[in-house]
Each structure stands twice: as structure tokens, then as C-alpha cells.
């Protein structure tokens, strides 16, 4: 296991700290961050400490919050649909984030999905160890911090990863404790994704099927995150500031809170809304819209209370070698006054670069900007 509190105190006054050894001990335990909490640590190991972390600079002003969009009147006659499209357009241009209510996913399914993710992470550690892996080509695996060996500071979080589409997944690969709800919830999310991609297409002034027709909705990648209670939350983060890699992310979270978006040079709390889903745009959407729609930096705070549980569904392909579709700025959105800002790339190129750099506080899209735009 990790170093004891006494060993950590030694580190404070000496030079015996061996970061690689600490990372390896955590990895080889296959028990994740939850294993540390279960062992009764009262002080977080040094590998989790984020330097110069200033949580107190966050804004909790309720007047500054991401838009909440009601999809309930989407199919009504009249101007209702156009009003929703305008709200989506405004949110995507200014925030890259919004919440949706009346999205046709029953609240009991949302609750069951959160409960299923919690059950997986809270089951016997020996059962979880069977699927612990750092092989990112696997369809289903559990670990702590995909970038454990490259990140400047480890995040206070464990994750069950499931690649659900486009390649069909054998349901028996999913953990039995949450198999049925993952399958059920994923089907609901796929349907919601198609609705959202229609709205985004129209908000861009394109044919409603445009984004679907270029396969933005083909891939689905699910991350079931578990953030255990943290004894020193002021020293670490649940998830470092980062940008999603997706075209679109559908995030289900419990009511614990802790998610923040970086907006107008300050961190702003995203207060959970019961029954709502958070929708945010990823780097692939910013790339193909030529920065008309934005992918926004966000993070998750560590908490003394918890656990916090969330389920993020990313609409994007993963690393399958057979996927080679090239994406660049949509030609209808490129003009002489607004020239292409990004190179043409595959999703695999973005993902390979993202996995190489980890959550290091730099947008992966910076690597793909055209030289003339830097």
C-alpha cells in the first residue's frame, strides 16, 4: 500500500521521497483511491498534492450559472423548437455547457445508474481487481487515474471505463453488479444524443442530420467515476482542470456537487439540479465548428463528505484501428473572414495525444492548431 502517515511526515523533513515508487504502490494495490480511504489514512499521500491550489477563488454566486434548457416542448407546434435551438446556440457559443431537463430519461433510471456505479466501486476489492487494467485498448476496465504516471499530481478518483459503441460490446464483459443498468442507461443516452446533435446542427445553421451523418453520434464511451471522501480536500482535486475530447458529453451526477467550469477567468460552481443532465461540448466539437462552439475547461473538487458519484458518456469513437474518418473545420463554417483554425485529424490522433500528455492543464487542441492561428 501507500506510505504511512509517519513515512509521509519523514518526507516533509527529508529527501527520501520516491514518487515513482509511490505511484507504483498505488497502481499495484489495484484498490484505487477508495482503498486508501478504507485503510483509514488521515493525511493524503504526497503524489495527490496539487501545488498552488487555491480553491477559495471559486465563485458560488447563484447569479452566475450555466443555462438550464427545458426540452419538454421540443416537439410542440409553433416557435418552441426554434426557441430551444436559440438557447442551445447561445449556451454553446458562450459556455460550452448547459443542463437539460425533461430529456425523456426517467428519473428512476438516472437514480439506478448512479446507484449501479456506486455499487461497483463499493463491492469487495478482490472482485474489482479482476478487471483492473491500464490497457486502454480494452472495452471494459477499472483503474485509478488514466494518466497516473504522467500527471503532475494524482486525482482523488477511481473509474470504471466502458467502450459501448460503435463496436458491439459483449454484455458479459460488463461487471455483473451494474451490467443491466449500464445497458439500459446507454440506450437512453444514445437516443438523447441524436436529439442533441439535431439541435446542435440546426444551431450551426446546418441540416438537422448533418452531425449525425458525419458520425458524431457513432461512438459512446462511458466513465463511471467514484470520488471517495478526502481527509485533506484543500490539497488535491477530484479531477484536474481539463477539456473533454468528445464531440458531446452527457454527464449524470449525484447531488454532492463539486463540479466547476472555468468561465471568464474564474472557477464557477455548477450546482446540481435534481433530474437534470449536464451537457458539455468537447474538443472535437470545437474543432469541427472552427471554434464557433467552445469546449470549456472544467474540474471536480475533492470533498470531505462523500462519496461523489458521476457517470460521463462521451459521444466519440475510441482507439479502434479501423476508425479512420478525418475531421476538420466544417466547410460551411469556414470563410475568408473566419479561416480554418485547426488541422484535419482523426479522433484516434486526438486521443493518442491526450493520453500522452494526460490532464496537464493544457488543451489537447493546442497541438492541432494551424501555425498561422497560433
From TrEMBL:
Gene3D superfamilies: B-lactam Antibiotic, Isopenicillin N Synthase, Chain
Top-level division of the source organism's lineage: Eukaryota
InterPro entries: DIOX_N, IPNS-like_FE2OG_OXY, IPNS-like_sf, Oxoglu/Fe-dep_dioxygenase_dom
Keyword Metal-binding part of the UniProt annotation: yes
Any single Pfam family the record assigns to this protein: 2OG-FeII_Oxy
Residues in Fe2OG dioxygenase domain copies: 216-319
Alphabetically ordered keywords of this record: Iron, Metal-binding, Oxidoreductase
GO molecular function annotation: dioxygenase activity; metal ion binding
Names of required cofactors: Fe cation
Family: Belongs to the iron/ascorbate-dependent oxidoreductase family.
Entry protein name: 1-aminocyclopropane-1-carboxylate oxidase homolog 1 isoform X1
Lineage per the UniProt record: Eukaryota, Viridiplantae, Streptophyta, Embryophyta, Tracheophyta
Gene label: LOC107491189
Amino acid at each position: 500500500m501507500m506510505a504511512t502517515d509517519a513515512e509521509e511526515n519523514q518526507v516533509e523533513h527529508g529527501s527520501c521521497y520516491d514518487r515513482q515508487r509511490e505511484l507504483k504502490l498505488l497502481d499495484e494495490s489495484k484498490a484505487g483511491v477508495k482503498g486508501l480511504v478504507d485503510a483509514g489514512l488521515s493525511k493524503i499521500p504526497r503524489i495527490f498534492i496539487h501545488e498552488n491550489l487555491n480553491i477559495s477563488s471559486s465563485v458560488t454566486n447563484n447569479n452566475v450559472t450555466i443555462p438550464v434548457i427545458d426540452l419538454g416542448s421540443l416537439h410542440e407546434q409553433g416557435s418552441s423548437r426554434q426557441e430551444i435551438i436559440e438557447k442551445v446556440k447561445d449556451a454553446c457559443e458562450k459556455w460550452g455547457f448547459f443542463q437539460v431537463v425533461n430529456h425523456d430519461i426517467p428519473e428512476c433510471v438516472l437514480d439506478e445508474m448512479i446507484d449501479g456505479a456506486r455499487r461497483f466501486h463499493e463491492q469487495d476489492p478482490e472482485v474489482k481487481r479482476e478487471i483492473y487494467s491500464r490497457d486502454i485498448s480494452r472495452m471494459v476496465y477499472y483503474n485509478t487515474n488514466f494518466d497516473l504516471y504522467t500527471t503532475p499530481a494524482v486525482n482523488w478518483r477511481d473509474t470504471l471505463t466502458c467502450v459501448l459503441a460503435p463496436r458491439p460490446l459483449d454484455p458479459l464483459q460488463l461487471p455483473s453488479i451494474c451490467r443491466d443498468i449500464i445497458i439500459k442507461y446507454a440506450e437512453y443516452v444514445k437516443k438523447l444524443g441524436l436529439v442533441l446533435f439535431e439541435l446542435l446542427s440546426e444551431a450551426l445553421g446546418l441540416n438537422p442530420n448533418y452531425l449525425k451523418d458525419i458520425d458524431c453520434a457513432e461512438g459512446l464511451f462511458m466513465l463511471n467515476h467514484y470520488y471517495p471522501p478526502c481527509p485533506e480536500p484543500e490539497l488535491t482535486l477530484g479531477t484536474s482542470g481539463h477539456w473533454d475530447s468528445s464531440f458531446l458529453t452527457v454527464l449524470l451526477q449525484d447531488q454532492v456537487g463539486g463540479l466547476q467550469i472555468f468561465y471568464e477567468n474564474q472557477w464557477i460552481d455548477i450546482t446540481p439540479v435534481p433530474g437534470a443532465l449536464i451537457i458539455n461540448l468537447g474538443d472535437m466539437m470545437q474543432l469541427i465548428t472552427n471554434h464557433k462552439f467552445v469546449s470549456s475547461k472544467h474540474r471536480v473538487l475533492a470533498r470531505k463528505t462523500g462519496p461523489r458519484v458521476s457517470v460521463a458518456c462521451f459521444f466519440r469513437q475510441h482507439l479502434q484501428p479501423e476508425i479512420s474518418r478525418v475531421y476538420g473545420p466544417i466547410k460551411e463554417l469556414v470563410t475568408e473572414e473566419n479561416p480554418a483554425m485547426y488541422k484535419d485529424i482523426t479522433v484516434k490522433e486526438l486521443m493518442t495525444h491526450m493520453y500522452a500528455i494526460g490532464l496537464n492543464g493544457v488543451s489537447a487542441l493546442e497541438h492541432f492548431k494551424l501555425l498561422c492561428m497560433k
